[in-house]
Structure formats: C-alpha cells, structure tokens
Design a protein that fits this description.
five-stranded parallel beta sheet, alpha/beta, 20% strand, 2 domains, Spore Coat Polysaccharide Biosynthesis Protein SpsA, Chain A, 16 helices
Length: 439
C-alpha cells in the first residue's frame, strides 16, 4: 500500500521570472523578488514563511534578472530549505510555460506560488483537499473586490468559473496565489513554449479538474506600486496578515475541530478498564509534558479515583537517576523501581513522541520499551506524527499540525485539553471538581 505524500515530499515552485512591468523603474535593475520590504529582500520573507509552514524543498523559476535571485538565495541552507533554481532562458515562458519546462525537477505533484505574493495558509490542508480525480486544488479567498478584482466563482468548495482577465459579477472570490497541481495538468503544453497559468486554470475549471479550498487570511503582493507600498507598511509594523493572537486562536479552533474524538473516547475506555482491574497509572512527560504529567496525576487521583504517579514529582530521585545512570534510562529505571506490571498503564505527553535515532526524548523510548516488555498498556497525547509512542500505543491522540511554527505550544495546549476531557468524563469521574459541585 503506497504512502500518501506529506509536506516534506511536495516541492514548492515559486514563479519569480516575470518582467515586473507594473513596477516600472522600481524593478528595472533589480528583480521584484529582491525588492526591499521591512529591511529584507521580499524573497527572504517568502522563504521564511515556507520554512515555518513545514515545507522544505523549493524550486525557484527565474527569468528577468534571475542571476541576482540565484546568487542571493544560494542553495537555500540560509533559510533551512533546499532550493533549486530553473532559468527560463532568453525567451520568457510565462507562468505555465515555466512550470512545464521545470516538470522533471518538480515531479508528479507540487505547490505553485507566485513570486510576488506573501500567501500564508495551511499547505497541509491544501494537500489534504486534493481529490484523486482532480488535476489540482486552488486556494481562494472571499474578496468581493476588496484587494483586487475577484476572479473565482466558488460553490461548496467547487470552482464554478475562473477568469483571470474576464471577471464576472457573480465572482466573489479571488485566486489566493497558491495552488497544488499534478504534473499531468501540463501534459498538453509543449515544452519551451510560452503559456499562462491563468489560461490553464480556466481550462481545468471547464473540464471539472480543479477544485477550490477557501482560506480566511488575506495575502499581500508586491507586483504593483500600491501593493509594494502596503506590504512595506504592514511588514514594517511587524504583522503581515492578522495579528498573532487572532491567528493562534483561529488555529486553535481548527485543531479542536480536527482532534480525533473517537480516539479520546477509546483512551477513556482504556482508563476505565484500568480502574476496574485495580492497575496503576504512570504519566510521563518531558519539559512542558512533565508539568502536564504532575497536574494530570493530581486530577486522575482526586477526580477519577485512579492510583496515579509521575516521575517528575520527585525531583531528588529523578535527578539522582539522571546523574548516576544517564538521562536515557532515567524513566525506564523509575518504572522498574515502581514495579511496573501488566495490569498497569503508561500515559505519555510529548510533542514528538520520542525518536532514539534522532536523539529526541530517548528516555521516553526506553520507558515505553520497558512497558512493552512487561505487557503494560501504553497510550499517548502526542504532536507531529506521533513518533515512537504512536507506534506502540493502544490509543494515541495525535494533535494535528496546523502551523509548523507553533507545533509545541499548540500540542502542549491540547494535551491539557485532552486530560481535562478525560478527568471530567462521566465514565471516569467519581468526584466533581469544586466549582462544578458548588451551587
């Protein structure tokens, strides 16, 4: 069974080869990607955004003054990215023509991003929205003529019409500047011939092969003098797009909607079985997870009548074990001294879930291997892909990644949500918390 592609598998094609005619003399000797915005070339802001969003491979499609862009970005290591550059050559190929020429470098599936756009969106959601029978999915924004002429008619995530040059009154959305495309969408375009991406989008919509994904945050562009002035002002103020608080809370709401409620119920059922058989609960965490473990132990003991413990609650013992026997064995040895047995339960709070090969929370991996060896039940509330914990757990609630730049705070926030969900679960709770019992 083939694995579905993840963000690390899908490159981003950045279309940075335009002549920038709307900018006139501003881009006469410097490509617009290198125009200064808040003290940095615009391409630096774009690359930082892609890295923060969890992407790693970028293919820059350059043309006009492209050698300056290539010299500036290099191999991408300065951004934490892998950057490959493809030059149109002496003949401008247009947006679709450039993508067609770079098809071998891009592979079967890629994101396409305009080089003059700062488009902050959930690339993973765009990837998840691609249907098997479609050639692509376009991010669209409810615009109603606010930032530019609306060019998309959207109905139930389906693009009814797209016209870049002939917008109609029924169009209230606009192309956000980011799409996910299959290489086969370009099969009919001859290599080395000019072609426009907008025209290709129109044909794909007419064929029913392009779907839409509505996003809520606006984009910024530097392709026009007015757009460049606005971007410079907004970036100088330190808040491109919505303020951090609004973005963080919007992502929190999306995470809550995407959290696996059935897996939470499964975890509650396993804890109920634990209490019935008289087993003990051991809660493990590192960093913020250690603080969660202490708090969760208190709630499970007081509200649910579970015998629960955490190694973080005895600093003297834990640090002595780390000092004498090493960090990697500290939790496993603590579980062994606690006489962990088959009837018991190990619950892990971790952002990554542990990965010994990469040197991430190796103490959790050793502890879970010991739990496996005695047959204890294992569960976790984990971020990212779940790591080692997800591979050995009877139940694992994985907090989805919305923004690669806030994986840790969002994961740790939802660890608290999940254990409070469990501690207040009607099947588990034997005693109400104070304010719930006060009338």
């Amino acid at each position: 069974m083939s694995r579905s592609p993840g963000l690390l598998d899908v490159p981003v094609a950045v279309l940075a080869g335009g002549l920038a005619t709307r900018l006139g003399g501003l881009a006469e000797r410097r490509p617009k990607s290198l125009l200064e915005v808040a003290g940095r070339p615009f391409v630096d802001h774009q690359m930082a955004l892609l890295r923060r969003r969890g992407l790693r491979r970028v293919v820059l499609l350059v043309g006009h003054l492209g050698e300056q862009i290539m010299s500036h970005v290099g191999d991408g290591s300065r951004y934490g990215l892998e950057i490959d550059c493809v030059d149109d050559g002496t003949r401008p190929l247009g947006t679709a023509g450039a993508l067609r020429q770079a098809s071998e470098r891009l592979g079967p599936l890629f994101f396409a991003l305009y080089g003059d756009s700062y488009a902050d969106l959930d690339f993973a959601a765009l990837l998840a929205a691609l249907e098997d029978e479609k050639h692509g999915v376009m991010a669209v924004l409810a615009n109603a003529g606010r930032w530019d002429r609306s060019n998309v008619e959207l109905c139930d995530e389906r693009i009814i019409a797209y016209h870049k040059h002939r917008p109609g009154p029924e169009m209230r959305h606009i192309d956000f500047g980011v799409s996910l495309l299959r290489n086969r969408a370009f099969a009919d375009l001859p290599v080395g011939e000019p072609a426009d991406l907008g025209d290709l989008y129109t044909r794909l919509v007419e064929q029913g092969r392009l779907s839409g994904l509505e996003v809520c945050e606006r984009f910024f562009e530097i392709g026009s003098p007015a757009g460049l002035d606005e971007a410079r002002r907004v970036f100088a103020e330190g808040h491109p797009g919505p303020a951090h608080a609004r973005r963080f809370l919007a992502h929190t709401a999306e995470l809550a909607a995407r959290l696996d409620a059935d897996e939470c119920e499964r975890l509650a059922s396993l804890l109920l079985d634990l209490r019935r058989r008289g087993g003990r609960l051991f809660v493990l965490g590192v960093g913020g997870g250690a603080g969660h473990a202490s708090h969760a132990v208190a709630d499970f003991r007081k509200l649910c009548g579970l015998e629960a413990y955490s190694p973080a609650d005895n600093v003297s013992e834990l640090t002595a074990r780390i000092n004498d026997d090493g960090w990697d064995r500290s939790y496993a040895d603590w579980l062994q001294a606690s006489r962990l047995r088959r009837e018991d339960f190990v619950l892990v709070f971790s952002v990554g879930g542990g990965d010994r090969e990469r040197g991430i929370s190796a103490n959790l991996v050793s502890a879970l291997e010991h739990a496996q060896s005695v047959g204890a039940t294992i569960a976790g509330v984990i971020g990212r892909d779940g790591g080692f914990t997800a591979g050995v757990a009877a139940a694992c609630v994985v907090v989805p990644t919305i923004d690669a730049g806030t994986v840790t705070p969002q994961t740790e926030a939802f660890q608290a949500v999940v254990w409070h969900l469990l501690a207040s679960h009607p099947a588990l709770q034997v005693r109400s918390a104070k304010w719930e019992s006060t009338r």
